[in-house]
Amino acid sequence: MPVHSLHVFDRKGKTLFTKCYAQNKANKMDDGEQLSEKRKLVFGMLFSLKEVAASLSPSSIKDNGVHSVQTGASTCYCLETASGLRFALYITDDADKAHARSIRKAMQHAYNDIWIQSVVRSPLYNPVTPNVQATNFETNLDAFLVSQSWYR
Question: What is the CATH number of the domain that holds 57?
Fold first, then answer.
């Protein structure tokens, strides 16, 4: 399965949602402290790369965000929304490179159709302290991801 994990952060870096689809082979479950540290590193990387991209981009370009970051073992696809939410989807590099556009569209769908419908429009949603676990976001997201050809 090429999908490793998905993280959703607010504009200040607070983790709103994390799901690991592939477990680390060295230790089957990451303890809370390790997972928290990983989330901080992911947000810090996204924040720093956005700042670098903004400083290097010509001022005429409006979209100076980072769409993907490729490392030796995986690719992180990024989506930043107008409200400041940041979605980070890690996919192992054995995924087909031709799916990059479809992965980006899937992330936009995850925000526009799943996040908005399941979380923001939920009667249990509180913008100050959002509780994503109280909604059906994870269930809807999992069903959507499984239907994608690049998920396997």
Answer: 3.30.450.70
